[in-house]
């Protein structure tokens, strides 16, 4: 079936459900081409402007519905506590909506603001993002949620990770993807020299776990919305910090001034936070590198290509991150 035709069928099914249940009069519909597989639309109605997010049926199989329900409940709580999160619209008893043909979707208020290109977030925006991230972490870890053991990220041993890189190197050789061999070799060499002890210093807690530029909206001097809480779970909050800063300030070079602005805002909420940013970035690399440097990456475009560049830079500069970011 033609993809555009299939998307139109899904949209019409969802709109029928919204009109029936909410009494909307639809004025205009604009597709939002962001995100992976899940479909999104901006909907102008007689009662306001909303965003609809449809959950791709195939991708939904990877989710635990109970975990998603918990994440949405936290999104509602965070918004009620002042975090700029989209307001979820319920059908009276649940945030989940289901269409006549079985499409699962969310309805939320449409948030104003702009998505900033990776690496281009300014100093004032980063200060505000740091402050909001600090508030979010404080609220998520105020004992309202139970401590869960273990955290989601369970670091593999050095030998396990080396085996991954060695097998990937061989596979790329066999497939004729010579262009990726230096990238994989850099990852392997960095894994050999990595100080594995840093992974024992990570402090577990509840975190957003997807805090990067595509999930942030800004005005010129502040954050207007933190989006997409699907991945919220018990993990390592300092990896939120590393992911946000790397996404917002790195564009081939690491901008210390803007990174410091984020940390200033964060430490205004957590004045005793003393984890080193260099360690957080090193741990982020160890977690994420295998997500993006993998078989099939030759078919990637958009954000995954950016993530590969980030992981390559972190691996190349792993041994000198302490010197580059010595005061953060």
From TrEMBL:
GO terms for molecular function: amino acid kinase activity. Belongs to the pseudomonas-type ThrB family. This is Aminoglycoside phosphotransferase domain-containing protein. InterPro entries: Aminoglycoside_PTrfase (IPR002575), Kinase-like_dom_sf (IPR011009), Pseudomonas-type_ThrB (IPR050249). Gene3D superfamilies: 3.90.1200.10, Phosphorylase Kinase, domain 1. Residues 29-269 form the Aminoglycoside phosphotransferase domain. The lineage of its organism: Bacteria, Bacillati, Bacillota, Bacilli, Bacillales. It comes from Paenibacillus bovis. Pfam families: APH.
